[in-house]
Amino acid sequence: MMAATPLQRRRLGLELRALREAARLTAQEAGQHIGRSHATISNIERGKHRVTKTDLSALLELYDATPELRALLHNLRSETPRRGWWATYRLPSWFETYVGFESEAALVREFELELVPGLMQTPGYARAVHVVGSHLTAPDEVGPQVAARLQRQRRLFANPPLTLHAVVSEAAVRRVVGGRKTMAEQLEHVLELAELDNVRFQVLPFAAGEHASMAGTMVLLRFPEKHDADLAYIDHALGGHMIDSPYEVATLGVLLDALQDAALSTRKSRELVESILEELRRA
C-alpha cells in the first residue's frame, strides 16, 4: 500500500499529538511504549514520518482513543493511497516534500530575490537555472526536474485553479538568464500569466531601497480546508526546508505583507517588465 500524501500525514500527526497531550504523556513516554525514539514520535506528529499500521494501533491503544476515532485515524493513514505525480521526477527529497504540499494548496504566496518563481518559468529559463545549479542538479536530472516544474504549473489552469501571489525583486526580471532570447521569452510568459485572474505579479523595485527580506526568498502555502494550518518554505544554496511553527509562519506572512505593500502595483509592475522586454528586443 502506498503512503498517504504529505498533507494527510500532517493531519494525522496533529491528531496524534492532541491525543498524546490529552493523555498527559511526553513524546519520550509514547516512544518507549512502541519501542521508538522521542524524535520518531515528534516526526510522526509533524507529518515528516509515515506511521506504520502497527505503531498507530499501539499509540491509539496507549492514548485510550475511542473506537470511532481509531477507525477515523486508520482511514486517514490509508486514505487515497497513491503515489504523487512528483515521485517519478527524481526530485531531491527536500523539494519533493514541498511539491507534495504545493500540489494540495489553494494559495501560494511567494517572494523571490533573483529568480522568476518556478510556477511561472518557461522550459528554457528553468533549464538554464538547473544547469547553473549543478551543485544541486546532476546533468541527467535536469530534464526530469524541468518537466516537473512544468507539471506544477498546470495547477494555474486547473478547475479550481491554484492562486498565486508573487512578488519578485527587480533583479529577478532584469538578470538575463539563459541568454537574451530565453529571457525575452520568459518575460513574455510572465506578462501572459499575469493576465490570469488567479495570478498577481508584483515587482519590488530597486528604488524601494532596503526591504524586509534582503537575506532570502520565501513561500507560504494556504490550503482549502481551514483546519489545515499554513505552511512556509525557504530555500538556500544547498536545498530548502519546510516550516510549520505557527509563530514562524505568521512572521513570514507579515514579511510578505510588507513586501507586497512596498512593491509596485500590478499595473506598474507590468509596465516595468514591458520596458525591460523592449530593451531585450532592441539588443
TrEMBL record:
SMART domains: HTH_XRE (SM00530). One of its GO terms (molecular function) is DNA binding. SUPFAM superfamilies: lambda repressor-like DNA-binding domains. It comes from the Bacteria. PROSITE patterns: HTH_CROC1 (PS50943). Transmembrane segments: none annotated. Residues 16-70 form the HTH cro/C1-type domain. This is Transcriptional regulator.
